[in-house]
Amino acid sequence: MNTTTVSVRGGAFSTECIEAGSGSPLLLLHGWNGVIPDTMIEGLARTHRVIAPLIPGYGNSTGDEHLNDFVDLIYWGLDFMDAAGLKNVPIVAHSLGAMLAAELAAAQPDRISKLVLIAPFGLWNEQHPVVDFFVESPAGLAAAMYANPSSDAAQAAASVPQDDAGRVAFYYERAKSLRIAAKYLWPIPNRGLARRSHRISAPTLLVWGEQDRICPPALASDFQAAIKNTSIAIIPGAGHLPGAEQPQALLSVINGFLA
Q1: Is the pLDDT higher at 151 or at 252?
Q2: Which domain holds residue 85?
Q3: How many other β-carbons are positioned within 10 Å of the β-carbon of residue 187?
Q4: Cβ neighbours for 209, distance < 8 A, ≥ 6 positions apart
Q5: For residue 189, what pLDDT is reported?
Q6: Could you tell me the sign of the dihedral formed by the alpha carbons of 12, 17, 22, 26, in that order?
Q7: Using CA atoms in the order 66, 71, 75, 80, what is the torsion angle rounded to 10 degrees?
Q8: Domain membership flag for residue 166
Q9: How far apart are CA 98 and CA 92, in angstroms?
Q10: How many structural domains are present in the chain?
């Protein structure tokens, strides 16, 4: 696994990109928290050359000042694919990244061979609203993100360092990720995907953690109705972060779909 930098749109964007594996390329897009578990990258890299860019504003990726809204992000995504030479590739994407992946597949269907959407944002159902995670405390957000709020991972996510330097760093990184996410996800998203989803031609796998309290699994049926040629996989023992909580179960359904 190595980190490279991809120049996008004549250098307007310097995009940090994690790469691993060999074989046919696969585009991996992270969620709103900007985290891609190493286990996911390594698992997918057994069969593909994984290209995992960090969206502008996350990590060391620059250029987010050129993006005002989610539409701008879609065109950054297309430009990144151009810069990376990605054509007719599968996309595996989570949360915010899955929302972006669906729009890329609607905008240029011939460039996407298969689509894996893990707990995607992008559709709205008043009966099953997405949680407004922008107003949650660290503890409240961790409780909503993880299937087991008492797990070590959930407790670590909810824990605020007690020393001054650690506390400042914690809230700085939290504010940074929420600021970038808000540009694309606030108000909680309905960006009109349902009006464009008929254009998606790639076979699509919808994956949800069974205990996702951020983006309810009930939304899977709405996505299945909106996107043709879809199947659904539910991961027991996982919330909004199945790649962190149940990586092997998630990799099993993804690799089976991509094979």
Answers
A1: 252
A2: 2-131+188-258
A3: 9
A4: 119, 147, 217, 234, 235, 237, 238, 239, 240, 241, 242, 245, 246
A5: 66
A6: negative
A7: 70
A8: no
A9: 8
A10: 1
